[in-house]
Amino acid sequence: MTVGDQPRSLTTRPEVLDGPFTTRQLLRIDEALRLADSTTGLTFSVYVGDLDEPVRQHAEKLHAQLPDPSRSVLVAVSPNQRLLEIVTGAEARKRIPDRDAKLAALSMVAAFSGGDLAGGIVSGLDQLASHAGRS
Amino acid sequence: MSVLETVGIFVGIPLLIIAVIGGPAYVSGGRAQSKRYRPGRPFTFTPVWFLSAPERLHPDGARALTAGEQRPALAAGEPSQGAASQETARQGVATPLGATGGASDRW
What is the mean pLDDT of residues A97-123? Predict the structure, then answer.
């Protein structure tokens, strides 16, 4: 970005508002992420967008791009493909067993099938964080 | 009552009412519908990637930027740039695939 571009960028809409969420929903997701991170000590991250085939590998690649993949949990949601992937790193997997991740996935999918993307993400993060316990 | 008055009352007034009620409803209804996700219907939006505190994770390096920024996620969501995004994603692989756990589901 050049110096001349900066004043214009202040007046234009941030790109995140072109995403699937309203401002209120974005605040709720942000709050859920901060709570999950601070209580568990793990790093939670949420991706909402299309995933390339094979979906699982794409989600794992996104997870590997996080700064500390082994202590990170990625929740990848693809509304168009109607797919949900939860990826836990090696260290995070000890705190959140696959069975608990599946339980969280089930409750998230129930909300998504009702059309509630933000609600499903928030409740899923809450469930994952409570399964992980305090750090 | 002249023909002009008759037309004005029985055609002009109903048209006016339709315009007053239908116009605002059409304008605002179209905008609100595009924002709502309904399962099974195509839904276009900019892909987003959230982290709670991207700047605190890695204070020194550019890796935190790549993870916190939306750019890699955006590129990954665009079919036209699929090959390029896969290339950047491959460079970012730090843990061997298969060491990760988790769950998958669909709705």
Answer: 93
Alpha-carbon distance B16 to A68, whole Å?
63
d(CA B102, CA A98): 5
Q: Yes or no: say if A113 and A73 are a contact pair by the CB < 8 Å rule.
A: no
Which of B35, B45, B46, B48 to probe the A interface (max A CBs under 10 A)?
B48
- What backbone torsions phi and psi does residue A75 show, to the nearest 5 degrees? -110, 110
Query: Strand pairing partners for A76?
Result: A47, A85
Q: What is the pTM of this model?
A: 0.67
Render pLDDT for A21-74 as a digit per residue (tens, 0 to 9). Answer: 888 999 999 999 999 999 999 999 999 999 988 899 999 999 988 888 899 999
More confident residue, A109 or B38: A109
Q: Does B89 touch chain A (CB under 8 A)?
A: yes
Please answer yes or no on whether B100 and A87 come within 8 Å at the CB atom.
Answer: yes
